[in-house]
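Summary for the lay section of the report: proteins are chains of building blocks that fold into shapes. Here we show the chain for PucR family transcriptional regulator and then a coded description of the shape we predicted for it.
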Amino acid sequence: MLKSYITVKDILQRKHFESIEVIAGTEGLDRLVKWVHVVEVTNIRNLLNGNELILSTGIAWKEKKEHFVSLLEQLIESQASGLCIEIGTYTSSIPQEIIDIANRAQFPIILFNKEVPFVEITQDIHALLINRQYQMISDLERYSQALNKKLLTIEHYVEILKFIHQYLQVQVTIVFSNKEIQFIPDVIEHKRKTLLNIIEIKDAALKASSQTARVPIHLLGRNYAELIIISEERSLTEYDQLILDRTGTALAQLFLRDLYVEEKRRVEEVAWLTEWLDGEKSKEAINEYLAYHTPNIKPKGAIVCVCKLDTYEKYSNIDLTYFKLYFRTIFEQQGFALFAIEKRNTLVFIIINERSTSTWKSRMEEGIHRLKNSESQKKNHQLKQLIGIGKYESELTNIHKSYQTALETIRIQARLSSESESCFYDDLHIFRIIYLLNKHLDLSEIAHEYLEPVINHDKKYNGKLFDTLKAYLSCNGSKQETAKRLFIVRQTLYHRLQKLETLLGEDFMEPRKRLAIEFMIVSYDYLISSKQIKEKDREAH
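The coded shape description reads as follows.
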């Protein structure tokens, strides 16, 4: 690659600069030169755009030092590249004050010790600059073509970063929106801190330093990353910025391609797992899928876990991803392999058991306990969810049965007032019967048939008969234990029991009737939590 910039030092190697002397600002010889001007006036502040090399005979100031100082200060302020003075006709020496000002500003002052043709110098340098521009355009096109070829073969974005580093010979850094940072070439810790300080500069003026250049990488309407180049040895040019822009575009294409491939793979995987959950996969297909994705496991059965998220909460992709990773980590430690699917506000986990069948439930309980009580879940990433775990299936082709029972567990849990109820389908017992009956019968009407006299009495007299009935049945008819549980004297309990006998019949503790009443009490609580019984009460009144 032809060097994309021209410095004062480069120009000093050209024709007509054989007999020169640099008397000040030697540290500024690496300043960029974009044009050459002949200046023979002292008021030039509004005539320059920056990076001009100035040629002068000194006629504008002659021997007037204050005019010379004013001109020099204007050149420095206008970011000129340097000042070349022909010694002889109008200027014989340079005052020490001028030299001191130039040295402080690292502004080069070059003396021609003999007469030189300014016209030929400007023509030569302008031709050099114009040819260099044409060459830069050609180099930029070649770089773009090489970049496009790389996009067809590379597997990782780091190869693009190495390519621009080798081409421009600068430090390359990419900062992703999740704060992940990649340095090419890699740097030691001390240098890393220095670069991070440069990258994190918030001040716009400092951020636009001539030694750093940045380009944002936007994907799908959001800021995905920022590509940054840093040079400690030279100022960056427009050409560097153009190369940076082309590289940023190439990276955006690469990232978009990777996201598309990942999304396509994810959609295909979700489709496959969904068919498995629907019972549409054969044993051979399941074994082949597991052999490809988890080749080292030996399945001993499986269960499905459904996590239904609170629909009133808004969760970011980061929250969901974090939850899935945390869920996976916990249950893998308990001897399970997992596959996850997102369905609207629900996460579905197919959980493959790798250890003893006899301990699967205790290990699941331990995992659920850790999940709900971990410090990380209690902080910012906590998701409010109902968890339902379906039946354990020894045959992986029956995973759809576990899925359906997990969904049923969620539906039952959503109607229970107590959060202490188990999230396992196998532990719901009577609630499963109530759920099925309520699907096919008007269970609230049956519950009212048994319990309405007691409920109406409590409403009318603000009584405690319903609570007394529940406690008495729970204590298996023990009056002493019931009184203790209700914190009442036994005489009060006797009075309430007499009232219950009046309302329910003297035989309400007869085994079959008692069983029916207990069942209806649980049903009533279930219906109350699902608001069905409340609606019936409103209709009745």
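Put simply, here is one thing we learned. DSSP finds 20 helices and 13 strands in the chain.
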